[in-house]
Amino acid sequence: MSGSAAARPEIAFVVQRYGEGITGGSESLARAVAERLAGDHRITVFTTCARDYVTWRNELPEGPERLAGVDVLRFPAEEERDLAAFNAFAEPLYARERTRDEEIEFLRRQGPHAPRLVEALRAQKDRFAAVVFFTYLYSPTYWGLEAAPERAALVPTTHDEPPLQFGIYREVFARPRAFGFLTPAEEALVRRRFDVGGRPCVLAGMGVEVPARPDVAGFRARHALPRPYALYAGRIDAGKGCAEMLAFHERYRRERPGGADLVLIGKLAMPEPRGEGVRYLGFLPEEEKAAAMAGAQAVVCPSAYESLSIVLLEGFALGTPALVNARSAVLEEHCLRSNAGLFYADGDEYVEAMAALAGEDRLREALGENGRRYVEAEYRWDVVLVRWRALLKAAAGERL
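The chain above was modelled as a monomer; its predicted structure follows.
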């Protein structure tokens, strides 16, 4: 395919946040894929001016921007979210039948409510060979799929959470021409909940890149970490399972005196973790994060709600095994398919698994090597991009 602008098909991505320094699974996925496809496709991202998914406050300039070869169109979110007020409205809905009007109100209050984004997509949709929507949950996907369903692909990043039962999401999953999934477990969940019929389903995934030789010794010295440690990397939030993880690790340290410490890196969304053997290092740049992972006895993934887990795969790529919450079918599946991690369903299992990973060098090394092989086979970018191009073709049909 020619690399000239005239020859490159135009593709739209729709995602709630986008840009440098914006973390989050679907946002990171959208940006990584867009930048790698931009050589062969003209990518335009429809997104909001928000940086923070909690408030959707407009912090970035409205209008066009070009980032790493990708055209970005930003539109304002018309309402900021008060999370406590939203939760007070939403939580009762999870426990009872809802009217469609209530579910639409949930969508608006959840945010980001950006009708100008949807109208711009509606006006421009005919110039795109395909429109790819990231994350089933948010307002731009619901209204955007209504506005531009003709050549739509949905990358839903689904996990089993209360809103998935809402009727409005049956509408979301009924509209696209094709689906891109991140794991077999995610695809199985969607097929159980929704009728995908004979529409194409592509196991697209995400590629993983990590530094070849992270400076583990330097990282330990800079942060005064002489002892063995397990690592949590990501948003530090009770909703991500962090409070339970901290309680389980306190029990592990109590029952296994001298056991591994727990180091946490990322942005705080709960009180700063404290306690014997617990260290919070803040938000670290990528090279420091990779060194932290490479030096850990295990990467802990305590969330019950995951559709992929980039952190787990990055740890595998660096030869570090995982300890994951068994309530996440996706995380458990990664461990079973790779034979590169252990999983826990309760505190007893956390203590035993952490003791094994921290105390048995041969086990940890064998699991680590299995993880490297798993990522090399399934999550290299050259492998993954073949699948993404297949997804675009499935959505675009003869236009691509």
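The longest strand covers residues 42-48.
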